[in-house]
Amino acid sequence: MTERAGTFTYSPSVRLKKGWEFDAVFRTGRQQRGDLVRVYFVRRPEGPSRVGVAVGRKIACAAERSRGRRVLRESMRRLLPWVRDGLWIVVSLRERGLSEGADDVYADIARSMERAGLFRGEWSGADWRVDSPSERGSCLRGASPRERL
User: Fold this and answer.
1) In this predicted structure, what is the pLDDT of residue 144?
2) Is there a contact between 35 and 95 (Cβ–Cβ < 8 Å)?
3) Is residue 114 one of the residues assigned to a domain?
4) In contact, 81 and 6? CB cutoff 8 Å
5) Is 86 left (phi over 0), alpha (psi -120 to 50) or beta?
6) Rounded Cα–Cα distance for residues 31 and 94 (Å)
7) Does residue 21 sit within a domain?
8) How many domains in the chain?
9) In a domain, 113, yes or no
10) pLDDT tens digit string along 4-56?
11) In CATH, what number is assigned to the domain containing residue 16?
12) How many CB atoms lie within 10 A of CB 35?
């Protein structure tokens, strides 16, 4: 397992940042289409998996594209601990995905990645609440909002 297994971080070391990295995935990789997203991936023989997100300029204005990128980053942050090593993945939001909620986009990414076989064997399935405080064993579980203050 890698250093990030079991953690829900999205550090710079796991991101695709350079244009040539995105081009390599788009041009030489495989594609899995979902209703809301497209998942492009290419197998790399060395190192941990790296992830990039993309929202095309033609589908929305800048503010909507920014929201789309935030939703994609958050979804990938929650899925990254279960992704196999040695992959470069780019998740691209389709126009239909701009009007959907973050949990719907997350579920569509998870379905697409599962169909492509990108998860490790211990992946238990899509669960948007996997990283919520109540799931991490908070001592305030079950407390009313007033008791948490």
Assistant:
1) 44
2) no
3) yes
4) yes
5) left
6) 13
7) yes
8) 1
9) yes
10) 445 667 788 889 999 999 999 999 999 999 999 999 999 987 788 899 999 99
11) 3.30.230.10
12) 14
In eight-state DSSP terms, residue 140 is: T
Does the CA dihedral 105-111-114-119 come out positive or negative? positive
Residue 2 lies in a domain: no
Q: In the structure encoding, which two tokens stand for residue 120, read together?
A: 């490790």
DSSP state, residue 137: T
What is the spatial distance between Cα 61 and Cα 120, in angstroms, rounded to a whole number? Answer: 36
Joined together, the tokens standing for residue 133 give: 């405080």
pLDDT band for 145, please (50, 70, 90 cuts). Answer: very low
Can you tell me which residue has the tokens 């990030």? 4
Residue numbers of the domain that contains 99: 12-124
CA atoms within 13 A on the CB side of 131: 16
Q: Is 48 exposed, middle or buried (0-12, 13-18, 19+ CB in 10 A)?
A: middle
Q: Kindly tell me the burial class for residue 59, based on how many C-beta atoms sit within 10 Å of its own C-beta (0-12, 13-18, 19 or more).
A: middle
Amino acid at 85: D
Residue corresponding to tokens 């940042």? 17
Cβ(103)–Cβ(128) below 8 Å: yes
Give the three-class secondary structure for 111: helix
Q: What is the pTM of this model?
A: 0.78
